[in-house]
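Forwarding the complex inputs:
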Amino acid sequence: MAKRILPENLIKFCVEIFVKAGLSTDDACTVADVLVMTDTWGTFSHGTVAILNYVQAIKSGSIDPAGKPRLAGEGPSWAVIDANAGMGMPACCMAMNLAIEKARKQTFAWAGVRNSSHFGAAGYYANMAVKHDMIGIAMSNADPNMVVPGARGHVIGNNPIAYAVPAGKEQPIFLDIALSAVAAGKIFAAKALGHEIPATWITDADGLPTSDPTNWPATGSMTPMAGHKGYGIALLIEVLAGALTGAGILSEVKSWKLHPGEKAYLGQSFLVINPAAILPLDDFKQHIDSAIQELHNAPKAKGSDRIYVPGELEWERREDALRNGIPLPELSFTALYQAGEELGVDTRLLD
Amino acid sequence: MAKRILPENLIKFCVEIFVKAGLSTDDACTVADVLVMTDTWGTFSHGTVAILNYVQAIKSGSIDPAGKPRLAGEGPSWAVIDANAGMGMPACCMAMNLAIEKARKQTFAWAGVRNSSHFGAAGYYANMAVKHDMIGIAMSNADPNMVVPGARGHVIGNNPIAYAVPAGKEQPIFLDIALSAVAAGKIFAAKALGHEIPATWITDADGLPTSDPTNWPATGSMTPMAGHKGYGIALLIEVLAGALTGAGILSEVKSWKLHPGEKAYLGQSFLVINPAAILPLDDFKQHIDSAIQELHNAPKAKGSDRIYVPGELEWERREDALRNGIPLPELSFTALYQAGEELGVDTRLLD
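Prediction (whole assembly, two chains):
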């Protein structure tokens, strides 16, 4: 059985790490909340396992731990935040809160972030809107890590997108995906074990399909989900999170691993919709509930006893994590202990 | 060499057909423009080939040819149109025009359509915004024709989404996709020829993958692109085009083929963004141009001599069609001649 850790202890530990790394206590609390919420969903790839990446990006100068987000422009239904190369989470929470506030009056509101860094899991921000009975859509571009049809190498990011929709009696609908055919973590795992992978996951140095992950990601690149469709949606996110905010796009976005010391110039994009301004909120929520129930009650495939609505698994895992602790994988614990040692933070909270 | 027809002749013919079918001349012109524009892009599956489907839906009572779209609600940055079960195109053009007008003042604006019918190709509406230097995003739900993970049969529509982004010297970026792994037309074509298909396109009566299209679509169903990711995005479109507009969602949406005579209760959703309100328009357009050029200039895969940006192929085909006529496939001509005969419209315009 996996070792479990209480969310409040994990948050405390992460706050201490980020304060030691140079963040204000407020910013450290925001970052810790994003990462630990993500772990409670079981989305471990985007939770505290990345703590060392953030710390190293701060050390290398890619992220300015004291960089404070600043309102760079706004109108009644939009805002652009300059993250000043600080951590992505405080700037993105500020953006999402602004968009929620504006959507209350304007029904549709948008906030973008430029000069930003990695924001953790997109789903965190989408769900901020749901607490206010609004629909949230969150997007970010990413440093190029994906090929496009006809090309070889890293051309575009596997730009993440998440959305969350308030329901009535049911849990919110909630999806958080990246646009590569599979998550990089799966390819790293196969590579570490010396396994072959399906020939649809990556291309080789020539840009051709390969089942051999040995040389990835040095040469070759991840493929977009659904080919030209995933490529096209990734490009839309470059436009909305990059071009529209004045952030970097495509190769202007730098990787904290490949370009240590360089600012990321990432961009994020948050759209908030207030359904209560358009139709009675209860009607809307009941319609969402009935859609969820229709999906649950659809005829099952042979061998299947359940149909999941997006987010359902995450809410179940979160309920379990809040009650029994988060079953963090060993990889996460290893990163956390190492971060504690590097920054001189007492690791007993992790035991 | 394919027989070609001049766009203006095809428009004239389609207008006559739809007027005979009971539409006002204005509405007939709108419908013809949508279908013929789509044919000029080479997206023949959503162009005039469907003319008989529309005519039959009018005859069966699914579509009211005299149904006039009506503004059902609005705010400074949003509007909802009731299509009154008329043709989808006039209602959707009205919605998109309203959203463009509102985005000019509000930067972000949205218009939805409920009680609607098939709207043709989503890309038509997205591109309406580009003419005003704005970004357009168009979505529609569809009658259930796709399975979801764990289920069997038709559970959700392969809901289309399109976007278009203005560029500077380059052509607008423009993507129009449906969320099934492949277009239904490809499966019908394989079925007609008695060919096997890849086992990733559809499921069988048990909800399991099959390479035999014989019993589809009576039993079995199309699979979502990228599995749970395509399912999740399709559900987002149900929310934005269905629930938010007060249209039908999931099984509330009726098929003109499976439920002749029943109203479709489709919903559409249009988002317009005015970049000029956020940053200097020339800066934005130059950034889009440089992204397009970076994509064009990316290293090519072995055997590839060109990388396409979404929409590039469509604009090239359109330029050729405007100059030399549209190389309509035989299937489209057959449908057009048949519509002419059924409705007593002179088919010499097609010769």
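Chain A has a mean pLDDT of 97.
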